[in-house]
Amino acid sequence: MTKFSRAARHFALLLPLLYLAPQASAQQSAQAQGVQTAAEAGTEAAALSSLPAPKAVQIGSETPWIYEGSDVPRDTEWLFGEMDNGLRYATRENGVPPGQVSIRIRIDAGSLHEEDSERGFAHLLEHMSFRESKYLAQGAAIPTWQRLGASFGSDTNAETTPTHTVYKLDLPAATPASVEESFKLLAGMMQEPVLSEENLALDVPIVLAEMRERSGASIRAFEKSLQTRFAGQRLANRLTIGTRETLNGATAESISAFHDRWYRPENVVISVAGDFEAETFASLIEKYFGDWEGKGPLTPAPDFGDPVAPAGADPDNPVGEVAVIVEPDLPRSMTYTVMRPWRPVQDTIVYNEGLLMDALAQALINRRLEARARAGGSYLYAQVRQEDVSRSTDSTFVAFAPLTGDWQSALKDVRGVIEDALAAAPSEEEIAREFAEFEKIYESQVEQRTVMQGSKLADDIINAVDIREAVAAPETVLQVFRGMRERITPERILERTRALFEGDVIRTTYITPAADEATDAAVRAAMLQEVAPNSDVRLAAETLLFADLPPIGEPGTIVSTGPLGVLGIERIEFDNGTRALLWPNDGEPGRVSVKMRFGAGMRAFDQEDAPYISLGESALVGQGFGELGQEELDRISTGRVMGFDFAVEDAVFSFSAQTRNADLADQLYLFAGKLAMPRWDANPVNRMKAAQRLSYESYAANAGGILTRDLEYYLRNEDARFKTFTPTEVDTTTPERFREVWAPLLTQGDVEVIIFGDFERDAAVEALRNTVGALPQRTPIPAEIASRVPTFPAAGEGTKIITHRGDATSAAAVVAWPSGAGVEQLRESRQLEILTDLFNNRLLDAMRERAGASYSPSVNASWPVDLDAGGRIMALAQLKPEDVPVFFAASDAIARDLAVNPPTADELARVTEPLKQLVTRIMTSNQFWLYQIEGSSKDRRKLLYLQTLLSDYSQTTPERMQELAQKYFANRPAYRLAILPDGQELAGGGAARAAEITGR
Questions:
Q1: What was the pLDDT predicted at 9?
Q2: Is residue 149 located within the same domain as residue 279?
């Protein structure tokens, strides 16, 4: 019997409230609403209960296939099986979120399994499997699962990597019928896709569009890095996207041959986690995949090759291939890789203890590297990371970004830190610090085991299979980690550190925007030089305690307390004006969500101070407060579950964190301390200035980069507060002016604190009294600032054209209409989500599925709640320059048609059912309710619309959609933005082709 999870308990109590909304129009059929009668549900359940018991399960003394050769304790919540045809599976009952079933089908074939003439076939086949198959007509996969409540892209998707192809389905509100139907459809996709010339002609342009969207300087640098790093190995020239030549050369016969060679049960693992019994999933797998037989003899995987040092290399310093990659539009970055052959391992406890010690060794080095960067080092960031890459190499990567063209100093700095770690063991105090950090993570995983998402659990099995390792329950990981503490000595960590930097070959790539900055020979010579250890970065490990810090002020006095009126949330107000909303609940065990809102947000800044907005988002928290700088903040939170995210929102600033009951009081102290006693350190500001300078030029590398850089600026009517500033403009900023801008903003506006989750109410109230309740009285937000709202570009200005420096085949286009904002029409904003999803489905069908012009066109709506203006509806796509007019015409045609003709009931159901299921699932999250409730301690209007929340997103009429389309699309022309390659102009036409592909 399906059981409610703990995460769903409070949600179950909300259902009566949320369904007090008006019922759907009679025009919406029961099928479109997803309504199921009791008789129908009983019939379906009976059908599943009549399934034969699974025969291939591995129970009792039989070792499950994933644990063969391993002494890792079995995670008994999984049911494993291996069928006679070689297909393996793992299934598990899981009710997070309630009613969802997550299915993953892994094919042990990716781009490394392709021959030279087949490059890109694994990924192309992924697309074609969705196009048409045994039980799904051409183009029917997306609408079929939309009718079952699964959205395309998030709930229904696939991925291709060098080593595998994985098909993913997260089926919400699963019924016995929809679960069985999904297994049947997926089985047809895997075993009998329709690989015809007609379908090839439809899918190849989509894959080429995806390739085009990824094109530019970044992909060129990535490809050259692969060729250098994996020289002599198959991975060196196996991008998953393939090549234009091989994709255009694909035939029905060649793609079918690839399918027959690799899509066979011996190469398949299926993992399922969801709100049915594990045995039921196993029975369905055996029913629909049990008679699958491979065609011809089993083909072994090709040899991926080993990294090999060049002849004559020094065994003690085996520097191999080096590549200086010049890309004027990319920031500087250097990576050197110590490479060893990858070999399958016996996934034992001893092996995992070694991995954990490796992780500790890397954490020690990375903390020292970060300390060096913070103190004004010659690099922006640096990191050491061990990774087994695509079953091709066991590598240790050292990556860093030089601040200037003096890459030699940056390389010397980074290597000096690493050489010190290789020369002498760390202190016991350093080890204890990192051990506490890891232990905190593993403890949290145990605490939150009951709310582990089924989708993640299903992914965990797939990832374990990919790296040829087992899976372990969180309790096992924590037990193993704690059990090895006495064996984690400085000497053992030194030994593991040295092993991480020993290898058969070292390969180096340096990406630079300057052609004369470096040569391959110069980089090779620098890598061959000996570097002295730098012990200055060894960090003091003395303990800092919150108890030793000064108080925020006199503890506050509660002036009012009482129920907010929904969900059992309590509202508390202190004598300094601070308000708090508290909701203790056990929906997410061991987890507490905290958010503090204050000030005026984006409204607070004058145009001339706009460069300090993004600097503040990046550097404000890092400056610390009082006597606590960046290093001290890290140290005082060691072994704790604490966070400190900062955001500049439309109308407020916010601090937010995920913490736990034991750390809540200190988390609140961190937030309050930043307002009460801010610290102004120049280093974080200068570091972020350097980061902005380094990244700016990369925006111009392709159309997508220009969208990231300029879209908000132009849609906000060229308001400087939404601008990405040039390096020259960034250079005009100073730490002194940073303080002048931000210091008064930290004192302005009411403070609201929201605490939702697993905490003790009385202890939280006392913590609030001593922290935010103890803050001094706040300065009111000036009326001039409070009245500021963003504006939308005026109508009728023609198409705004900006250019990029990337590939001549890359362009992008945007159309946008102003919508609304504020609380009063909040219900209308939810209905607009339905309208934009209708628009999105039509645009996806027109520009991707029919025309193959764009890989991922999208439509979305925004509706600021804390402002009275600034909302919009926007459609965008990346495409060829010649297809920009087609996109504009297609978007106009869709907008006009929505305003003239109501959508059909089925088209509406394909949108409302996924939206209904999405909202239903995220309602189990404290974060969701925090977002819905925030601000209501002062403005209670948001609460008025909670009871209609679910129905507003999932119930409507065709006539209502037409009415909204007329209101927002028909009353003014859309704003148009085109991003074209340098030297190109916007061509005319497009209407005829748009009419052809939209059918309008």
A1: 36
A2: yes
User: Would you mind telling me the total number of residues written for the chain in this entry?
Assistant: 1000
Asked if residue 306 is part of any domain, the answer here is: no
Q: CA-CA-CA-CA torsion for 38, 41, 42, 47, nearest 10 degrees?
A: 170
Higher pLDDT, 543 or 806: 806
Residue 485: which domain range? 319-537
Tell whether 245 and 353 lie within a shared domain: no
- Are 816 and 917 members of one domain? yes
Between CA 856 and CA 841 the distance in angstroms is 11
Main-chain dihedrals φ then ψ at residue 241, nearest 5 degrees? -75, -20
Q: Does residue 1 carry a pLDDT above 90?
A: no
Sheet strands side by side (includes 319-326): 319-326, 505-512, 333-341, 393-402, 379-389
37 part of a folded domain: no
Question: Does 750 map to a domain?
Answer: yes
Q: Is residue 13 part of a domain?
A: no
Rounded to whole angstroms, the Cα distance separating 538 from 533 reads 11
For residue 127, what is the domain's CATH number?
3.30.830.10
Query: Does residue 368 share a domain with residue 487?
Result: yes
The residue-averaged pLDDT of 264-292 equals 98
Residue with tokens 């990576």: 335
Residues 584, 606 within the same domain: yes
> Residues 906-926: pLDDT tens digits?
999 999 999 999 999 999 899
Residue pLDDT, tens place only, 775-804: 999 999 999 999 999 999 998 879 999 999
List residues bridging with 104 in a β-sheet: 168, 271
Output the CA torsion 135→141→143→144 (10° steps): 40
- Number of independent structural domains in the chain: 4
Residue 476 and residue 554 in one domain: no
Q: Can you give the pLDDT at residue 28?
A: 33
User: Counting Cβ atoms within 10 Å, is residue 243 exposed (0-12), middle (13-18) or buried (19+)?
Assistant: middle
pLDDT for the residue 539:
75
pLDDT tens for 922-981 read 998 999 999 999 999 999 999 999 999 999 999 999 999 999 999 999 989 999 999 999
DSSP string, 183-208: HHHHHHHHH-B---HHHHHHHHHHHH
Token duo for residue 676: 């009460």
